[in-house]
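Final report, results section. Input specification for complex C-07:
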Amino acid sequence: MPGFSGGGVGGGVGGPVSAPPRPFRPSRYVPVSAATFFLVGSTTLFFCFTCPWLSEYFSSVIPVYIAVIFLFTLANFCMATFMDPGVFPRAEEDEDKEDDFRAPLYKTVEIKGIQVRMKWCSTCRFYRPPRCSHCSVCDNCVEDFDHHCPWVNNCIGRRNYRYFFLFLLSLTTHIMDVFGFGLVYVLHHRQQPDTPHAAVTMAVMCVAGLFFVPVAGLTGFHIVLVARGRTTNEQVTGKFRGGVNPFTNGCLRNISYVLCSSQAPRYMGRLRSPPSVEIQPPFLRPPLSEAQLEAKVLDNGIQNDRHSARSKSSLDQMESQSADAEPPPPPKPELRYPGLPRADTEESSLLTDAPPTPSMYKYRPAFNSPGRNHTALTHPNKMIRGESLDSPSSSILQSSRQPSYRSEPSSLDGATVVGGGVGVRRGAGERGEGPGGPGGTTGGVSGGMSGYSLTGRSYTSYPSSLILSTGGSHSSSLRSAHTAHNPLATLQSEGTTDTSYKSLANQTPRNGSLSYDSLLTPSESPEFESAAHELSPQKPHAPFPFATRTGQPEVGSPSAPLQGYMSPFLSAQIAQQREGQLLQGSATFSSPHRAYLRAVSPPPASSAGPHETQILLLHNHDSSTRGPRIPSSLSSSPGARSLEPPVSPPPRGLSLGKSLTYSGEAGPQHKPRPAGGGTVLGGGGAGGGQQAPQ
Amino acid sequence: MAETHSLQDMRQQAAVAAKVFIQRDYTNGTVCQFQTKFPSELETRLDKQQFEETVRTLNNLYAEAEKLGSQSYIEGCLACLTAYTVFLCMETHYEKVLKKITKYIQEQNDKIYAPRGLLLTDPIERGLRVVSCTSVSVLAGIYSFLSSLSHVSTGTWILSQTLSSCVDRGHHLRRQKPD
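Structure output:
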């Protein structure tokens, strides 16, 4: 199973670069094992105990029919589980060279007249095609990403969506059949309820009845999705809530596309044709300077360091040029620790030792074992790179800090005031993203949801007021620091240069070792939207408290932020996923709060107190006090989409922000950034703050 | 090993193959299409018409692969009926067209691009995201020759080492024999 799902290890002969081998995590297999067990076990019992009587009492067609449906269900289940969902191979080095550290984090394309943003994936090293999203569980970009299904332990994407959909349909039918015929049996054997056959039949009926509700709900939900031509990702993140879906071709065509199109090809594991002309591996970058070579200490840090080294030199240039153009970004730590004194010397600090790096907040302290505290500010790269614990040189760190510091959420694209500094920064040709992006997205904002990121996340641009309040000139965020900076930036009230450089984004830890724990820590996945999105379907912890708390479909509640489900189908799915999460690990049970906190954002442990409390308040059903926004979110109508996903580069792994966004969004969709949540959550709150009022 | 190292240096020093990437054209959604815009880097090396013709043909081929026609429909039904075991023996419509595309690209390379020192790669290798057009230089050809030489030489070295170790072992045994 693991070998098939996601991008296992390696490809075919001379295949493209694939993800590094991921550690074996048995907890991932619990839901799929449970699903298999229940499906096969119950049906076997049904065949053994109920079908003999049915065949002789009615006709033998019945067991045959049930067997056919069961086999169809099983076949679709296996296909959904084992089929490659459409994983993109990692881009090779040569593709990246044109997109250097100044390249934008987002690229905008127009699809049928609608501006769609393609986000730079720092793991896979390319701009994600529309509808593609990076699954943090599988650590792969998946084409037409729908969601990561824990029940099949696989992503559902372009290639296997059909099988997943048919699996749902056939499973619903199968459950109904088993329940119905079991009921017939039981009713006929009312007088002898104590026979083993009757008892087993009743047990099977119970199991069937239990699973029927979530499965049927999910089936209905997906029927609606197929008819509307949307993916779960798009639906959950509310991408097309106010706008037009450019990917739909009408109900009938959407359905026929899902069911009748030819099987999409697999991208991984392909045999590469030997080039007719021998060309050396495309490492045709300009030779690195000695300093840059020295910086290549760590595996994961290779590109990071190189980028940071490059960015250092360019940044120095930029700093000198842009110092006048815009105020330097405020120190990021403030976002997280409101109590902390702001670094006054921002102007000077940019080029000096330690403006706190926004990237530090991208990643959870827990993720980077070495002291994640303010002292760690001097080693931002540590944070940036996740597992790379040692930065080779502080100078490089500082330099890399600078760009990361400047990276801003793409949400700011909408109102990016492309200052001179920003313009300067946009050295390479991709500048179009900068002015074009903001322009487009700004228009989108006003138009309402028209601008949405292509990365499976609907991010509406920030309200210009928000951006202007930050006072920053937010150029289109560059790839490098696209992660946590964004939410942080939104929280900052002073001007921030938000340029997320791709190089900084590339520094995000891509260790591929994504367990549920790592899922809980949004920091590890720089792409917030992927983390948040992928986290939401699977996240065991957050919904769990709500699951236990109420059966209500308040997916509008903070747990919902992970899912954003508001419709009954969504709630059914939530319930289903909650069930899955219930199975998923004791860790979930043991520390839902902690898990939630981790998932939300990485508040440094040292100052976790108030933030965590706030987070707990917001998301922990057990807590007596609830954030002010919770009730509103809960009271929001089921129809309301729970979240307005943060527009700009989602706060890295700040599902907290996301959850805040969700919770905040539940009611009025265009809620301005909640002040309370924003301050409390610091960086995480930045995400929350990023509610994109239309 | 020293040879490869020097080759790498040479590789870096030589201003070799620029790579031009022809990106996907998403104006019609997620249909597989590539941009027909002629990249400026190729202006001196290639005729615009030919390039556009190549890309247009590729786009047509991909459109044919993704077409919701009777063949794909029949394929889907057959797959359902056989519990998808038919995929073990039969090639899907898309794969067939992909083979056609690979052949077409090879043919274009041979006829048009290689004579101009260019090489198109099959986009399927990169997940249908880009078509890369590599400019092949003479130096690159030399590199490949030299690198192959280095491979041969290292292979020979390894072989010699192995043989010598065997010989040594043989000597050792012979020395031990008389007891």
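The two ends of chain A are 43 Å apart (CA to CA). Chain A touches chain B through 54 residues (CB under 8 Å). This concludes the modelling results for the funded period.
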